[in-house]
Specification:
This protein is α+β, with helices and mostly antiparallel strands. It contains four helices and four strands, in the order ββαααββα. The protein is 29% helix and 10% strand. The mean pLDDT is 81.
């Protein structure tokens, strides 16, 4: 605000960078509040599948429950297909992939990717 010979002039401007202090130096410290939740852990569906299969043989329905989903979604089917194609997961009954008794397990290559807890 500037006052000059009885007149008052107000200039409003928006500040796009709220991390600036009035002297032009940036604030130090975190830019957002605290975040809750685990610091590490599986993030993607593929990682969740690999962790769930560690030491287990699971059917697709059992995988759904193990990774915390409600149903066998298209995204989950694609993730299983990609893991099979990359040789990280294998069928327990290789000759009949559509068997009702079919389950999935980790391959040796897949076991190398899962951290040992």
């Amino acid at each position: 605000m500037v006052t000059n010979s009885g007149f008052t002039i107000s200039i409003k401007r928006s500040v796009s960078n709220r991390n600036l202090v009035s002297d032009g130096q940036s604030k130090s410290g975190p830019k957002s509040g605290p975040k809750s939740g685990p610091k590490s852990g599986p993030k993607s569906i593929k990682e969740k599948i690999l962790v769930a299969l560690c030491g287990n043989e699971l059917s697709s329905a059992e995988l759904v429950t193990a990774i915390g989903q409600h149903s066998l979604s298209g995204k989950l089917k694609l993730a299983i297909k990609a893991l099979l194609a990359n040789g990280l997961v294998e069928y327990t009954i290789p000759g009949t992939p559509r068997s009702r008794l079919q389950k999935y397990r980790l391959t040796e290559k897949g076991k190398l990717l899962v951290p040992n807890d």
